[in-house]
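Repro case for the chain-ordering regression, as requested:
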Amino acid sequence: MSTIEVCLVPELYQYRKTAGNNHIAVVVDILRATTTIVIAVAQGVQKIIPVTDMNKLSEFKKNGYLIVSERDGLQSDFADFGNSPLQLINANIKNAAIAISTTNGTRALSVVNAADKILIGAFVNISALCSTLRTLNQNIVIVCSGWKYRFSLEDTLFAGAVCENLTGDNQFAGNDDSVIASMELWKQAKNDLLNYVSSSEHYQRLYSLGVGESVPYCFELDSYPVVPVLEGGTILNYSHH
Amino acid sequence: MSTIEVCLVPELYQYRKTAGNNHIAVVVDILRATTTIVIAVAQGVQKIIPVTDMNKLSEFKKNGYLIVSERDGLQSDFADFGNSPLQLINANIKNAAIAISTTNGTRALSVVNAADKILIGAFVNISALCSTLRTLNQNIVIVCSGWKYRFSLEDTLFAGAVCENLTGDNQFAGNDDSVIASMELWKQAKNDLLNYVSSSEHYQRLYSLGVGESVPYCFELDSYPVVPVLEGGTILNYSHH
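-- result from build under test --
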């Protein structure tokens, strides 16, 4: 039986229980980087390059990339978009090349380098993601982006939802306590998800910064059923590759 | 209002939100180090020295200390006790000097060095601990020991129980998502605690190693109402100091 494990923040990936590199890392940053990435891929972008060092974005801009950049919740001055799913839903970005740098999500994408395959998850693509994971049938490590090295409720709820889906019929076995905890939290949240997360730290932060308008879109299940994959530094649509 | 924060593993203490050193760290390792320490202090030991490096224990033994030592759940050869609350409940250790080294708990005690005060918590002293924390009325960081850098359910449930107690009447304000999550988990667990944790990783490990006999004692609330404090490398009874 394949196993599934949850790292509650990216820093814990290095201490994961899943041995070797024969595993799939699923990176999640519900508010908002991985939601943004899923929506951009669904809109038919050519490719997305995640960039940890914001200073390198100007080079991408010169080379014709559209820039998605955010720090501490707010759009960077020079960026075309500010890590807002809503901006990308309404933009004409078909075939565009995008470079993205965010507070937490792009860092999480950079730490999972031991994985055999890196998939990108969010509530907006959860069923498509789970279906792909079932087909691949490898061990899974879900990596929550959190907020500045700290635990985030919304990423953990997503991990719990994936674990519930995949362990339900025993194709996958949870192999640590964070799987138990995330599923227990998801069980409490799932019937009123948006309300459940409304007291969480980053939900509150985004609304207080005046950029909360895209938050509800981040909790709509299966609205963009594509699975992005990160390969050789580039994010593509997994079904096209 | 004072704040309360939860670090789900010791490695996250360095990234805590609580600023400065004007805070109390509460270290918890329910299975079993902090339960063992609380019971030893309640039995009237003179002092306990937590020792991270197991190789240094022989020096303590030569100097007349009783040795509590465990790795991966099992008692070390040269030790007098094996991190088993049950052994200490039944031992005559009044006025003894003890040196203790365990897989996770003593490491957690060593990372909280930025704190103004370090208290030791477990279910067996939870009400006494909360009462002391209310009197001190400083910001609090609860540090869960976990298991080898990974999340543990039982430590998180304890953190949730303390947060519920202290935030209930608004003397303390929770200030991050791990407070929310740990309280939600505690809410589900508290009416049938031992059953709730029975699927957890370390509970299962202790029983499969044949050393589960002390586990139920670790979930008895308030059976040893003393509060150990770590000061200058030595654990003492806080009410005596």
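Ordering looks correct now. Chain A has a mean pLDDT of 95.
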